[in-house]
Amino acid sequence: MSGRTFVSYSRQDADFALRLGKDLRDAGVDLWIDQLDIPPGRPWDREVEDALKRCEVLIVILSADSVASENVMVYARHGRRFTRADLQAYFDAQPWYRPLYDPGSFPERLLTSVQAKNAAFILALQRVLRVQREPEDAADAIRKIR
Fold first, then answer.
1. What residue numbers bound the domain in which 18 lies?
2. pTM over 0.85
């Protein structure tokens, strides 16, 4: 691979991402990963945005955690509350979060068309990942995806 390679991952997958990043660097890949490339004291979000703009290759580490994490963030940005106490506590501690909507009454129209498509894709992917853990439900999950 030539050029900058950006590694995207969920915090729950940080150990794996770091091992992968180090292995790829050892193999000669020109790689950017936040754990290795953001200097102390630098704003994380700005550094990530700048690295994404420069990258030519994007590696996305998909796991059940990463898929769930991205879907949750989309809804949190629009003020959705969560039924899981740990998620709600996490977002309540974020200065940008404004809880406006209960989970059952969240107006899906707030999502952009891209966010709505991503949410549908993520739900389908979550069903597939769930099937990998519960193979007896495979046929049912595949019917739901179609």
1. 5-60
2. no
